[in-house]
Amino acid sequence: MNKRSIGEKVFNVINILVLSSVLLFTLYPFYYTFIASISEGSLVIMGKVVLQPMNITFRAYELIPTIDYFFTAYGNTFFYTFFGALASMVIMTMGGYALSRKRLKGRKFVNMMISFTMWFNAGMIPFYLNMDSLGLINTRAGIIFGFAGSAFYIIILRSYFESMPIELEEAAKVDGMSNFGIFVKIALPISTPVLATISLYCAVDRWNGYFWAMILLKDIKLVPLQVLLKKLIIERNVLASVDTGGSFDFTRETLIYAIVIVAIIPIILAYPFAQRYFVKGLTVGSVKG
Amino acid sequence: MAEAALAEKQSGRSGQKNIKKKIRLLKNDFDLYLMLIPMVLFFLIFTYKPMTGLVVAFKYYSPFKGIWGSRWVGLQYFIEFFTGPYALRTIVNTFRISLSSLIVGFPMPIILALLLNELRAYRFKKAVQTISYIPHFISTVVVCGMITSFLAPTTGVVNTILKWYGLDPVYFLSIPAYFVPIYIAMEIWKNTGYNSIIYIAALTSISDELYEAATVDGAGRWKQFLHITLPSLMPTIVIMLLVRLGGILNVGYEAIILLYNPSIYETADVISTFVYRTGITEGRYDFATAVGLFNSLVAFIIVIIANKFSNKLTDTGLW
């Protein structure tokens, strides 16, 4: 049955080799960052550490808690991620549901108004000046609410809600349920896959975002991890904010690598569980509204 | 709804009844309109109100007088930008970076999806897929931090490897010619796996019957690839290409800001980074708004054109 030509066999081998190198290319940066973070600092900067860790030490990790505001920033990131995603989801699911009801007056206009924001935006400076005039600079509220709507996600949610069988809604209406009741008790429960997907995307956007947090937040006590990371690992000012205790088995390099590992741990830990929703999200998104 | 329909049937269609019905429906849907309000307010406050602030592009902005109190200067800032030294550089760089990353980066996820599609080993296939998506979820700051460290002149791992081969260390991030390749490599690492999802989905939706029929007709795997797989993937490829072309002005300025420095501005400075520097860093809000408006308008025109093409080529637009 399964006769394969020589050409096919050769192709299969090459294919596996190519895909293995894709794996290698993807994983090596993480692997290197990890082994460098647990190796002796001087060996890392001398270029001795390439394939495996050497003179394993966790000194760099021990220093991380002494970095000024590191845990404050970490906590802030959790705060912005949770409440930001929550605000986005409340605003977008309610709005998306309302828009999915065809009888809603002004539906076309609101749809248009939302879609238009995907094609044209005022740009960086007017947005900044607007936040300034609203008094939202250097506030947590500015970060949470200023970015709580995304046309793209709303359209996905709307088209998902549109697929809800009309009979369900009519039956609930007969039972005397309000629209809001139907939304909470029927529409949301049957939409858990898309809700999981969109809220995960919102959370990742929040967790990873640095640009506007960097611009809008001036107070170091308010900044999320990514903004602090920029100072530590991009501007490489890490030694200035750490208490070395006179020890030298770490270097700026190993400290930076350790910080990177600590910064990506939550994403890496959540990834196996979240992964299938991420993928689902894209395929949901490709179904046009 | 059902009640209303029933009521309508029983009582015939007098105009008065209709109006009453409409009022009742509106009353019944009162909460539906309330649910819409937060979202509409969000867009009014955070995307439409800033658009009124675009008038700053035509004014001499004074923080004390505010946007509306400042005096008009017409097209002064546009003229300044286009006659100045930065317009050409930033526009050329924007197109160079996004076009080269399109040309090099766009085929990658397609190739990855096709190779995965030909793979028989299920677990290996799943592993490659799952792992190749990970970099997409790593933050820009972390990715750029890793790049900065890896490419550091004496301590970075890339220069370490160069040293093995007896080569002199290179300070990659301060040589203009290296910036675009570094940026593209980053994009490829970050997004190839993730962008392949859509193609993999398209490939799995191809019916097995097609392949079975082809096998019966004696077509080998290469022939099947040419005559079934590739044509079935074409619509997805065209749509994705148009999406990318529509967003050609959206270069990853958030990453560029983290990677560039004055010594490589000549290849790395794009319109958005220029707006950021002159506006946010130097505080020239009026001038930066004008440059940003130019950027938004061109982006708007390009996306409209891309959608026109999309409507022509396929039945569906991009939105």
How many structural units, i.e. domains of chain B? 2
What do we call the CATH topology of the largest domain in chain A? MetI-like fold
CATH architecture descriptor name of the largest domain in chain A: Orthogonal Bundle
Strand order of the largest sheet of chain B: 1-2
CATH superfamily of the largest domain in chain A: MetI-like
Query: How many domains of chain A, as an integer?
Result: 2
Shape of chain B: flat
Structural class of chain A: mainly alpha
The helix/strand order of chain A is: HHHHHHHHHHHHHH
Defining key terms:
heterodimer, A: 289 residues, mainly alpha, MetI-like fold, 14 helices, B: 319 residues, 2 domains, two-stranded antiparallel sheet, 17 helices, 74% helix
Structure description:
The complex is a heterodimer of chains A (289) and B (319). By secondary structure, chain A is mainly alpha-helical. Chain A has helices at residues 6-37, 41-45, 59-63, 70-100, 107-119, 124-133, 140-145, 151-162, 166-174, 179-187, 192-208, 211-216, 225-234, 252-286. Chain A is globular, with a radius of gyration of 25 Å. Chain B is mainly α and 319 residues long. Chain B folds into two domains: 2-72, no CATH class; 76-313, MetI-like fold (Orthogonal Bundle), CATH 1.10.3720.10. Helix content of chain B is 74%, strand content 1%. In chain B, strands 1-2 form a two-stranded antiparallel ribbon. In chain B, helix 9 runs parallel beside helix 14 (253-259). Chain B starts with a helix and ends in a 6-residue tail after the last helix. The model of chain B has no long low-confidence stretch (mean pLDDT 89). At the A-B interface, helix 1, helix 4, helix 5, helix 6 and helix 9 of A face helix 2, helix 3, helix 7, helix 8 and helix 9 of B.
